[in-house]
Amino acid sequence: MRADIKGSTMPVLEIQLEDRESVVTMHGELSWMTANVQMSQTTQGGGGLMGTLRRAVGGGGIFLTQYQSRDGEGLVAFAAKVPGHIVPVDITHGQSFLVHRHGWLAGTPGVSASMGFQQSFRGGLWGGDGFVLQKLEGQGRAWVELSGELSLYNLAPGQTMLVHPGHVGMFEDRVSFRITTIPGIANKVFGRDGYHLVALTGPGQIWLQSMPLPNLAHALEPYLPQPQNG
């Protein structure tokens, strides 16, 4: 298997598969593929039965889409949905990554994606979206889509970064996290930054994204046609 990430602003992940090799994704990720790549639905995404159940509870559904090359080499491609980056991560047993809810793009069959964390927020910019993380575990390689520009930090033990929930792209599972509120009543009421922050504490790497999809939608909202009253 050979993977190439092409482009810059709107990258494309192209995976060259050997005969009978395969990759798996959630539904709706395909951009293009050669005619000898066969699509099928599978429950095998790493983690066995419990992994399948965790994925279903997390909203990902029971089935994954598998792309397998038949009768020689094949190619399958997955394009980014918004300007940003596609980041490869290698996952081993005992190590996992937490990524934002739309982050997992594709992975080798040994990678399992399930619900990592979910909390609903009330009030502020994030009132209807909450904070949802997927957990990538198992063994293999995964590709993660992050929006906007990236900032990668290697947190020292005990070092904490306070992050707006939408800017949390991905972090190692050894990084601890907790939901906290923005300090100060005036900041909560007049700051227009929502009420919540995520405290990420090292040791470990964190990937922060500059353009969360909810923030982009919020910025575009004034320019979209509004339904007429009544």
Q: How would you portray this structure in words?
A:
The protein has 230 residues and is mostly beta strands. It contains three helices and 19 strands. The protein has helices at 48-57, 185-190, 213-220; strands at residues 2-6, 12-17, 22-25, 32-33, 37-42, 64-69, 74-79, 84-91, 97-100, 104-107, 111-119, 131-138, 140-147, 150-155, 160-163, 168-172, 176-181, 196-201, 204-209. Strands 11-12-9-16-19-14 form a six-stranded antiparallel beta sheet. Strand 1 (2-6) and strand 2 form a beta hairpin.
Features:
single chain; mainly beta; Double-stranded beta-helix; six-stranded antiparallel sheet; four-stranded antiparallel sheet; 3 helices; globular
Which CATH top level class fits? Alpha Beta
The assigned CATH architecture is: 4-Layer Sandwich
On the 0-100 scale, what is the average pLDDT?
84
| Structural class by helix and strand composition | mainly beta
Quaternary status of these chains?
A: single chain
Q: Number of DSSP helices?
A: 3
Approximate shape:
globular
Q: DSSP strand (E) fraction?
A: over 45%
Number of strands: 19
* Lateral strand order in the biggest sheet: 11-12-9-16-19-14
User: What's the order of the H and E elements?
Assistant: EEEEEHEEEEEEEEEEEEHEEH
CATH topology type? Double-stranded beta-helix
What does the radius of gyration come to?
A: 19 Å
Spans with pLDDT under 50 lasting ≥5 residues?
A: 123-128, 185-193
**Helix content bin:** 10-25%
The CATH superfamily name is Mitochondrial biogenesis AIM24
Distance between the termini: 56 Å
Major sheet: size, sense and barrel closure?
Answer: 6 strands, antiparallel
Total tally of structural domains = 1
